[in-house]
Inverse folding.
């Protein structure tokens, strides 16, 4: 019987490859272009330049004020405090309707994943009311709730509820049976199963529903305030746009529309992108 000789251990000291040049650093312009905020800023600058060129070519401030004129009107509105006050009124109403819509959507979808009656109820209600434009309910809201914030909150809840409920329920249906069984093995059922298993697993769909609901609610509020403000003599940002349109201050109308766009960009960039970065992207659920 032969034995395999033991190989003596030894260490080889590797020399650095000095003959191979190190990889060159990317140019500064290419490194800056990797930042998403810079690319978006370039797009906005191009849009502003095209806007200014089109306004100067047309030469009619009443139809299309230039970007510089709109910026001046926006600055005057901010300095005078008129625009911040209108924005504050709109955002307070928006948050009330948005939060109430989220609570109702969560309750409806929780009932849908728990019972057959809840599934039938969610399917029937979404088929009935989701195609119905929220602004079409404003006359009924004014009749039922009168000239007040409750009318606007009612149409905002309608605009948020169904989109968020459908996305949340679709996310719940996409949760694997393995995760559901793991939750049941830990004794989770009903609302506890929804909170600890379904919500984290369906978070990408829930965030998509929240973004869609926010967009629907924001544009519904501005449209509703155009009517509501004209009826009551007061209102938020939509009423600001409507009032200046009647007085033919087109630059202020564009300034109000610019505020609507800026708020949408800020909410998208600061709120929803931050939530996605801290949750679904960090957990590897979304690229």
């Amino acid at each position: 019987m032969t034995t395999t000789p033991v190989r003596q251990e030894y260490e080889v000291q590797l020399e650095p490859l000095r003959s191979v040049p190190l990889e060159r650093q990317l140019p500064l312009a290419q490194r800056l272009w990797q930042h998403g905020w810079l690319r978006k800023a370039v797009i906005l600058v191009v849009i502003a330049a095209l806007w200014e060129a089109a306004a100067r070519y047309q030469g009619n401030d009443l139809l299309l004020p230039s970007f510089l004129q709109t910026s001046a009107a926006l600055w005057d509105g901010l300095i005078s405090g008129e625009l911040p006050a209108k924005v504050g009124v709109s955002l307070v109403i928006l948050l009330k309707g948005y939060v109430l819509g989220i609570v109702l959507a969560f309750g409806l979808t929780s009932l849908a994943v728990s019972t057959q009656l809840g599934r039938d109820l969610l399917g029937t209600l979404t088929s009935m009311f989701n195609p119905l434009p929220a602004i079409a309910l404003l006359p009924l809201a004014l009749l039922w709730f009168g000239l007040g914030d409750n009318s606007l909150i009612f149409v905002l809840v309608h605009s948020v509820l169904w989109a968020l409920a459908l996305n949340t329920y679709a996310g719940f249906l996409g949760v694997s049976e393995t995760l559901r069984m793991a939750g049941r093995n830990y004794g989770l059922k009903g609302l506890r199963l929804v909170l600890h298993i379904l919500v984290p697993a369906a978070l990408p769909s829930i965030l998509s529903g929240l973004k869609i609901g926010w967009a629907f609610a924001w544009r519904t509020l501005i449209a509703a305030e155009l009517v509501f403000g004209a009826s009551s003599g007061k209102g938020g940002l939509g009423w600001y746009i409507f009032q200046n349109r009647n007085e033919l201050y087109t630059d202020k109308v564009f300034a109000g529309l610019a505020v609507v766009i800026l708020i949408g960009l800020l909410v998208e960039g600061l709120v929803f992108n931050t939530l996605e970065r801290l949750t679904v992207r960090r957990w590897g659920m979304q690229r």
